[in-house]
Amino acid sequence: MALLEVSELSIQFGGVKAVQAVSFSIDAGMIYAVIGPNGAGKTTLFNLITGVYAPTAGSIRLDGQPVHGLTPDRLAQRGVARTFQNLQVCMNMLAIENVMVGAHLRLDRSLFKAALRWPALRRADAALRDEAAELMRFVGLAQYLTARADSMPYGALKRLEIARALAMRPRLLFLDEPAAGLNPKETQEVDALVRRIADAGVTVVLVEHDMKMVMNLSERILVLDYGKKLAEGNRDEIRRNPDVIAAYLGAHA
Amino acid sequence: MTTSRYLPLGALAAGLLVLPWLLPNSFYLDLAIRMAINAIIVLGLNLLIGFAGQISLGHAGFLGLGAYASAVLPTHFGWPPLAAMLAGMALTGVLAALVARPIFRLKGHYLAMATLGLGIILNIVVRNEAQWTGGPDGMPVLPFEVAGLTLSRDWHWWWLVSALLLLSVWMAQNLMDSPFGRALRALHGSEVASRGVGVDVAGYKVAIFVLSAMFASLMGSITAHYVGFVTPNVADFFHSIELVTMVVIGGMASVYGSLLGAVLLTALPQLLATFEGWETVVFGAILMLCMIFLPKGLAPTLAARFGKGGQ
Amino acid sequence: MLAQFLQFLFSGVTVGATYALAALGFTLIYNASHVINFAQGEFIMLGGMLAVFFTQAGLPLPVALLLAVLLPALVGVLVEKLAIEPVKGAPTVSLIIITIGASLVIRGLTQVWLGKGTHSLPAFSGDAPLALLGATLLPQSLWVLGVTALVVAALWGFFNHTLLGKAMLATSFNSLAAQLVGVHTGRVLFLSFAMSGALGALGGVLVTPITLTSYDVGIMLGLKGFVAAVVGGLGNGLGAVLGGLLVGVLEALGAGYVSSAYKDAIPFALILLMLFFMPQGLLGARNTERV
């Protein structure tokens, strides 16, 4: 059974049909990419699946269980993590605290124990700090272990979001344009990072404009255009698909 | 972090310990007690405004609820002061929880409006129910006594308030360096991201609002017993603004900033007394200048200037 | 029965018109800058106090009234230039505190200059009440309602039929896009504060012959104007006017039928109910959060 099954998913904002009857499924362990021209509905699709928007029609199943209409915090409980196209880093905190927040659901969140500096809670927190540091090293942020988030450059913040998402120990990780705005060297590093995340057993879904990265990483690719599914398949199928070529190059098929 | 945070706490404790012997007379001790009381209130409000990023322009209303619970229940119904104090906190907590859910669906200006409205209504109630509250003239408050012991001398109050202040600072720091506190600060930084990692954003906002309100109620009771008299001014809009100003000037999300803000603004009216009539102007000008030139508040700005990080 | 109801209605509509002008002021500034100007009430106070001052100084009534409207407009501009422009993009809490600071300065200066006394202004055209269906109506109420109606009509024309008005509307919808098509958004901000100052002051000038004034009436009036703006749907001009009238009428009816002691609590109870059950206001637009 597929890990994620999306069928006939649609959403409408006023009269605008941003996503129309899109269906696809993602198997556990793969790297899956969603591509398409600007405004094709890729981020909207992400927002639907991660609970930011509720769909107008259609269904989303995780492990066979319907999850459409659940709020993001409920989806987080089921192992769905994401990063954001427009950075959503908490600039009022240290970098490492941003990562620690990712582990929110695994922690003892009691107010009273916290206020009284409960020993067990302190020990768990210290262990979490080590774990977060390890994650920061994993994504290549070793030099920012004591930095404030608002003192870090853009490229590092993108990776900080990934580290935070990984702190959730997700089964399914959505990366919304992880390479956007990065230089070629940084892009290559993110490319390698995504590969390592997948190797660690996390299913990765990627929205990305960098075709080289998409073609290099993804096992299956979904192409959206004007909110509709244009094509889906493996790299070679997509590369040869005349509709895709037409949509991307503006050629007449 | 662990070693560095006990240093300032120790220094604060030492300062509180020796202060009474340094003050020339009881006028200054009274001022110091009021500063410490305000510091505790502001600390509680800063948890809400500075750390969680939610504004309240009606906090004086909660202070008033506590103060009047401690004034009315013992005077008219013969309740022991401690029971009255706890009842005030419980009432405030219930009221805050009732209004919090709908209020915290709102953001920014709307939140300011809702809390402000609540505060003003509480103030109007206190002013009008004269048969219980003495109306605009206020009413006397019985002394605080528990288990046969009465707090009557100023230095009793000083030790009580000092202990409460130390405890509050310690607990506030613990709280903010915990999973609960991180979730609060995270929803301030980005609600979207916080939801995405599983934080029940609405639940946390309600929790910190209720906590902060009950804390204000407690301190309202203590102030009422200390002063021995309570007037509706304790619950008015201007007092709410004063409290928010202490938070902002000291430094949002700064524990020691809260203390600094409370100390400075409690002293200000004394200093301004020489400028008969100009107090309001100076007060307003300080607010504006601080926000324009020191938007982060005094404590964080000073900390940055002297190269010290942290809170 | 009916006469009594009409009496309450008249006084409610009259005061409501002042709230409507204040709410329009909030709306103008909110649309131009997304700032809620907590000093709006002080413009109302300034209007009334200056009108009193200038008439007592012996100026003819029309000149006194004109100055009492123009000076607060200038104060509005000063607030914008000195306090709002330097902190562009600051968080909501900071902006709220800055405008509260400005309101304290304005109130404090007025108190130092004109004292703490309560003042009245002669009615513009006599005090002989008009009888209407058993209720009485003060001529000044007609002034308040008439001028408010004129102002609302003029504003409507300004926003729908002049280039500058349309530029201001465009800025409120999308400031960056407006800038790209050549709207000078700085000037829009400037103008919004000037107009808000004048609108608030106008309300103050008109209503002072009925309600009296002193240096500290601004807070309550301003807060009620804010309530009116939110009730109408923040950012919506027509909503602001409706909100103002609604708040005024409910307040008068509540004071008349329920309890005059709780008159001031009525707008705030209304706003709480409104925010709980209808947070977008009567005519406000729903916003979708973008991620």
UniProtKB/TrEMBL annotation, chain A:
What keywords does the record list, in alphabetical order?
A: ATP-binding, Cell membrane, Membrane, Nucleotide-binding, Transport
Domain ABC transporter, chain residue ranges per copy: 4-251
Cite a GO CC annotation.
plasma membrane
Q: What Gene3D superfamilies does this protein's entry cite?
A: P-loop containing nucleotide triphosphate hydrolases
SUPFAM superfamilies per the record? P-loop containing nucleoside triphosphate hydrolases (SSF52540)
Where on the tree of life does the source sit, at the highest rank? Bacteria
The family database entries (CDD domains) matched by this protein are listed as: ABC_Mj1267_LivG_branched
Electron transport as a keyword of this entry, yes or no, is: no
Q: Name one GO biological process term.
A: D-alanine transmembrane transport
| Keyword field contains Acetylation | no
**Known SMART domains for this protein?**
AAA
Q: Which InterPro entries match?
A: AAA+_ATPase, ABC_AA/LPS_Transport, ABC_transporter-like_ATP-bd, BCA_ABC_TP_C, P-loop_NTPase
Molecular function via GO: ATP binding; ATP hydrolysis activity; L-isoleucine transmembrane transporter activity; L-phenylalanine transmembrane transporter activity; L-valine transmembrane transporter activity
The name this protein goes by in its record: Amino acid/amide ABC transporter ATP-binding protein 1 (HAAT family)
Organism, by scientific name, is: Rivihabitans pingtungensis
TrEMBL record, chain B:
Q: Which domain of life is it from?
A: Bacteria
The molecular function terms in GO held by this entry are:
branched-chain amino acid transmembrane transporter activity
User: What are the subcellular locations of this protein?
Assistant: Cell membrane
- Specify the species: Rivihabitans pingtungensis
**GO CC, any one term:** plasma membrane
Give the keywords, sorted: Cell membrane, Membrane, Transmembrane, Transmembrane helix
Which ranges does the record mark as transmembrane? 6-23, 35-57, 77-98, 110-126, 157-176, 206-227, 247-268, 280-298
Question: Major location, coarse class?
Answer: membrane
Q: What is the name listed in the Swiss-Prot or TrEMBL entry for this protein?
A: Amino acid/amide ABC transporter membrane protein 2 (HAAT family)
Membrane topology, as annotated:
Multi-pass membrane protein
UniProtKB/TrEMBL annotation, chain C:
Q: Name one GO cellular component term.
A: plasma membrane
Which positions, given as ranges, span the membrane?
6-28, 61-79, 91-110, 130-156, 188-213, 225-253, 265-285
Question: What does the UniProt keyword field contain?
Answer: Amino-acid transport, Cell membrane, Membrane, Transmembrane, Transmembrane helix, Transport
Gene Ontology MF annotations: transmembrane transporter activity
Gene Ontology annotations of biological process type? amino acid transport
The protein's predominant localisation is membrane
Question: The organism sits in which domain of life?
Answer: Bacteria
Q: What is this protein called?
A: Amino acid/amide ABC transporter membrane protein 1 (HAAT family)
Organism listed in the record: Rivihabitans pingtungensis
